Amino acid sequence: MRSRALSDDHKSVQLARENLANTLVMQGELAPARALHEKVLEVHSRALPDDHPELQMVRRNLAITIAMEQARDRDSAGAAAGSARCTELIRDLCRAQVTAARAAILWSPSREAEERCASVVLDLDTSLSFTQGYGAFEPLRALESDAFVFAETTRGAAIASSEMTRRSAHDPTYAALRDELREASHALAGLTRSGTTSAEFDRARVKREAVERELVALSRELSSARERGIVIDVESLARTLAPDEAAVSFRRFENTRLELSGELDSSGQPAVRMLTVPSLCAFVVRSSTSDADSTTKGDSAPTALLRLVDLGPLEPIEAAARDWREGLDVAGESRGVTASARDGVAPSVHAEGVRLRETVFDPLLPSLSGVRSVVVVLDDVLHLVPFDVLPIDETLLIGDRWRIETRTTLTELVAPSAPSKARGELVAFGDVRYEAEPVRPPNSPGAGTEVAAVVQESRGVAPPRTGERAGILRGSAWAQGFAALPGTGVEVRGIARAFTDEFGADAELELCQDAAASRERLLAVAPKARWLHIATHGWFAPESIQSWSDPEPLDKQSGLGSRMSGEEQVKGMSPMLLCGLALAGANLPENAVGRAPGLVTADELSTLDLSNCELVVLSACDTNVGERRAGQGVASLQKALQMAGARSVITSLWKVPDEATKELMLDFYRRMWVEKKPKHQALWEAKTKLRETKDERGAPKYTTRDWAAWVLTGNPE
Q1: Which SS3 state, helix, strand or coil, does residue 179 take?
Q2: Stretch 577-602: mean pLDDT
Q3: Closest-CA residue to 22 (of 61, 56, 53, 54)
Q4: Which among 128, 67, 114 has a CA at the least distance from the CA of 576?
Q5: CA distance 191 to 189
Q6: Concatenated DSSP letters for 212-252?
Q7: Does 91 score more than 70 pLDDT?
Q8: Around Cβ 335, how many Cβ atoms within 10 Å?
Q9: Buried/exposed 208-222: b ≥16 CB within 10 Å, e otherwise
Q10: Would you say 357 and 382 are in contact if contact means Cβ atoms under 8 Å apart?
Q11: What local confidence, expressed as pLDDT, does residue 399 receive?
């Protein structure tokens, strides 16, 4: 009926053809379904831009239909043609989605850019599945380069988008907009902590994003929408690598394979079914003239090498990581990185570490011949694992043989950040008084939106107050309050002494302790820092945000819909509101306007301007907590600080004893400032020193748990 009344290329006709094709696929009528998909693709290719979502959908559906034909018929004569057609379709799909992802990063606020990049995960899963043949063909290795660019472009979109906005920092309007953004983030965090409704939360979120859109527009106007830092390809990446270097990008994906079910479909043909398994793969990129690839023999020019390594189903990898962490007694909760604090580690921890290494690192070794330095980009459960400490044998660790450098995305190597032009100021927070009324600096951010705190003496502790903890922490590990960390006072004062001893009259120091280590003080002084050291607790909201007062949607009660509640909006759209740092006053109840005086969220940290900051060190407990999202990293403090512009961030993957942290941090800064060693080398040597320290009986003084948790993400120099 529609084909008689409407033109052949009408949108409604294409929709009807696609629906009919999908119905035919379900009935096993693959040949006519393929013909319909091909017709829709022809029409859409003429009428729609190449990155249009409807065009990607039909490319994906057509490729899958062709693969199903081959899986069912096993026609060797038609396999080559089917393989070539699928390669063409998936390559076009990858390239179109890369274009769309770059546009999202260039033109959207950070959260929206990340959401848009995450929304194409189905197409990335399909593309990676086709590189392995989709159960119908031999592996389609010709797709590996395009799949790599697709995977890496969509990774870390929020950080890339934030970096784009900082390109307008020289404009006078920029500072005012950053202040507005910080105020909007503060209001949004207040609603999340104290509880609100979905409507109120959505209004606050829209207001925040409106300010961020103005920043994006300003950046676009001043930078002419240059794509520097978001464009990557194998050749340009390989040119940044020395012959003894490799870049490894891990990626979680849903691996789909086709197989015959043993039954007949409605057409009387063998039925084809899809099996989808959460899996992990790794892209290995090198620039080498070595024998790692026979094509480079006899040719002195560097050749880009790309290998896609299938690491198999994710479940055994998760089990290996879980068992290793349990052996260290740092398994913690499923949605954060927390740990208990009993002495010692399980005797099996070495064996579990070996098993984990054999699962995720050893399969890469054939591609790492002659390599001494490995840049890794992690995904999913691997965010919980410090790669450099996995054992090779009884005495040797991965970090002893290879330099392991952790990055958020490999695009950082293609467009590295410029060195800081800031003077060498150290800002250090420690010995926080969680029971004290925070000292509020004059003219601090948020002064107009929060009840002013009463200024106490530096070491004064507020009198007991009645009331509950901040609502967002009820039901969490911090519901009873944050424990004092006395070692952090010795730590930050020791770091301050080392700093002034080394830099003398040129030393610029801001040391914030006790009640002065407040949220307001951090927001005021952090942008001045070249080195920012924060020794305090990190926190993560529980599975249920018990402060939320949004009533259950009526459509949920009736079972007629799935509208998100306000609580679900926070978890799904603003996860960086669910983790943060505890500062002075964190153990006090919410104040008269529902604010938790000592809590700062990762979202608020992301609005700071840390473009002059070489290094942020989060030195205490649980500072890499966050919500894991496939391909987008961890919505964590580390990510927030990189969004703010910090070049490098050091965080811990589990709770670390106070004394061990103090010893390691003092040694780290001495090696960096006095011995002038790169950050990565200084950290590894400080970890190694603790690892080799003996007690009075000659036994190891510290366990692996005490020194292994620290990871540096970002620029290692």
Answers
A1: helix
A2: 80
A3: 61
A4: 114
A5: 5
A6: HHHHHHHHHHHHTT--TTT---HHHHHHTS-TTEEEEEEEE
A7: yes
A8: 18
A9: bbebbebbbebbbee
A10: no
A11: 96
Q: Is 661 exposed, middle or buried (0-12, 13-18, 19+ CB in 10 A)?
A: buried
403 phi/psi in degrees, rounded to 5: -80, 120
Q: Decide: 707 and 660 in contact? Cβ < 8 Å.
A: yes
The span from the CA of 608 to the CA of 525, in Å, is 10
CB 135 within 8 A of CB 71: yes
Q: Report CA-CA distances (Å) from 112 to 224, 456, 574.
A: 20, 42, 10
77: left (phi over 0), alpha (psi -120 to 50) or beta: alpha
Using the predicted structure, report yes or no on whether residue 56 has a pLDDT greater than 70.
yes
What are 222's two structure tokens? 């001043």
Are 548 and 577 in contact, with CB atoms under 8 Å apart? Answer: no
For residue 186, which of 453, 519, 433, 469 has the smallest C-alpha distance? 519
Q: Tokens 């399909």 sit at which residue?
A: 126
Quote the CA–CA distance of 530 and 524 in Å, as a whole number: 14
Asked whether 256 and 134 are in contact (CB, 8 A), the reply is yes
Contact 617, 652 (CB under 8 A): no
Determine the distance from the C-alpha atom of residue 626 to the mean position of all C-alpha atoms in its chain, rounded to a whole number. Answer: 9
Please state, as a whole number, how many other Cβ atoms lie within 10 Å of the Cβ of residue 451: 11
Q: Where do the DSSP E strands lie in 193-336?
A: 245-264, 270-288, 303-313
Could you tell me how far CA 680 lies from the centroid of its own chain? 20
- Residue 454 pLDDT: 30
Percent of the chain past pLDDT 70, that is, above it, reads: 79
**Confidence class for position 481, pLDDT limits 50, 70, 90:** confident
Beta strand 303-313 with 425-432 is unpaired
CA contacts within 13 A on the Cβ side of 469: 20
Q: Quickly count: other Cβ atoms within 10 Å of residue 700's Cβ.
A: 13
Determine phi and psi for 416, rounding to 5 degrees. Answer: -65, 150
Per-residue pLDDT tens over the stretch 200-220: 888 888 898 899 899 988 887
Measured CA to CA, the distance from residue 589 to residue 466 in angstroms comes to 7
Q: Which residue has the tokens 């403090």?
A: 637
SS3 of 568-611: HHHHHHCHHHHEEEECCCCCCCCCCCCCCCCEEEHHHHHCCCCC
Which residue from 215, 223, 208 is spatially nearest to 176, judged by alpha carbons?
A: 215
Helices (H), 466-616: 487-503, 519-525, 554-558, 566-573, 602-606
- In 3D space, the residue among 113, 25, 115, 9 whose CA is nearest the CA of residue 64 turns out to be 25
- pTM reported for the whole predicted model: 0.87
Q: Are 148 and 306 in contact (CB under 8 A)?
A: yes
What's the full length of the chain, in residues? 717
Confidence of residue 462 (pLDDT cuts 50, 70, 90): very low
**Sequence-separated (6 or more) residues with CB below 8 Å from residue 348:** 323, 327
The pLDDT tens digits for 503-560 are 887 889 999 999 999 999 999 999 999 999 999 988 887 554 544 444 454 444 444 4
Contact 569, 191 (CB under 8 A): no
Is residue 33 pLDDT above 90, yes or no?
A: yes
Helix (H) or strand (E) holding 360: helix 349-360
